[in-house]
Design a protein that fits this description.
The protein contains nine helices and seven strands, in the order ααβαβαβαβαβαααββ. By secondary structure, it is of the alpha/beta class. It has a single domain, classed as Vaccinia Virus protein VP39 (Rossmann fold, 3-Layer(aba) Sandwich). Strand 6 and strand 7 form a beta hairpin. The longest helix is centred in the first third of the chain and has 12 residues. It is globular. The two termini are about 40 Å apart. The relative contact order is 0.14.
Length: about 290
């Protein structure tokens, strides 16, 4: 079961985040942490951002005074969701996987006067808020103050049932990053995107997407530390899931954030019956008169 909170006014100025009647110190802290990417030109990429990942990782390491400094938060949703809102003139936004809420407050601070609805969905477990994701209580005062923000406390796929189809200009998926969950979230939230809207998500270019992490896991398991149960982080499945679901459509990538324009992908994602990645599929033993499945 989830809860929804709304009320208040639109966050158009710094004064709205300094209301003495509401404790916005947490929100102001998030805005300060991600202020670098809001500086003019701080996250500009001059090369192409379509298909090939060119431009996705920022500028080359060579010093060049003509290029602005790239902030560490350029690849965070707190920069890219406001960018997508501006690029596609999104008035209704859904964020799936909110965690601390940095993307929420950054987007509302920059576009709160134009966004009609911002739906933030997260299970918000019992872990402490920072660096964990148990931040529901911290975000409630913000939702009670600003009418555009709606908090839904639930897991991603079940929560999608409460959202009308074709109701959102922008859906940003940033929940669990393993192959199975990314696959399920894309299929669950694609119908929620308007015909002219955008489905987007995070960590397409994260280093834990790729096969090398699997080799490291296997090597680590053979060490004394690995045998004591100290495991390295699991691999992500974002890149593989999207490569399968949208192999026939144009996929944009910038600073590790991916997005697909629905108008250019009319057939939608390719749904498959697999619940795990190809390399994880078990191979059945060869039986009499039967080959490998």
């Amino acid at each position: 079961m989830w809860s929804i909170f709304t009320a208040g006014v639109s966050p158009q100025t710094d004064a709205d985040w300094a209301d003495t009647h509401v404790d916005f110190s947490y929100a102001r802290g998030l805005l300060a942490d991600h202020a670098c990417s809001r500086a003019p030109g701080a996250c500009t990429v001059n090369s192409s951002d379509t298909n090939t990942l060119s431009g996705a990782l920022g500028y080359p390491s060579a010093a060049d005074a003509s290029r602005p400094t790239v902030c560490s938060t350029c690849s965070h949703g707190s920069h890219m969701v406001p960018y997508l809102v501006r690029r596609y003139d999104a008035r209704s936004v859904i964020e799936v996987g909110v965690c601390t809420g940095a993307t929420v407050v950054s987007t509302l601070r920059q576009h709160g006067d134009s966004i009609d609805s911002y739906t933030a969905i997260d299970a918000w477990g019992e872990r402490r808020c920072n660096p964990g994701c148990g931040c529901y209580g911290r975000l409630r005062p913000i939702a009670e103050r600003f009418p555009a923000l709606h908090l839904i406390q639930a897991y991603s796929v079940p929560a999608s049932a409460s959202i009308a189809d074709a109701s959102s200009d922008l859906v940003f998926v940033d929940a669990a990053h393993d192959y199975e969950n990314v696959h399920a979230d894309v299929l669950a939230y694609w119908p929620k995107v308007k015909p002219g809207g955008v489905l987007a998500g995070h960590d397409f270019a994260h280093h834990r997407n790729w096969a090398e992490i699997l080799e490291r896991r296997q090597a680590h398991a053979r060490t004394a530390e690995g045998r004591r149960g100290k495991r390295i982080p699991p691999s992500y499945g974002v890149g593989q899931a999207l490569a399968e679901l949208f192999v026939h459509c144009e996929l944009h990538v910038r600073f590790g954030v991916w997005w697909v324009e629905r108008r250019l992908c009319r057939s939608g994602p390719i749904a498959t019956n697999r619940s795990e990645a190809l390399w994880q599929r078990p191979r059945r033993r060869k039986g009499k008169g039967r080959g490998l499945a």
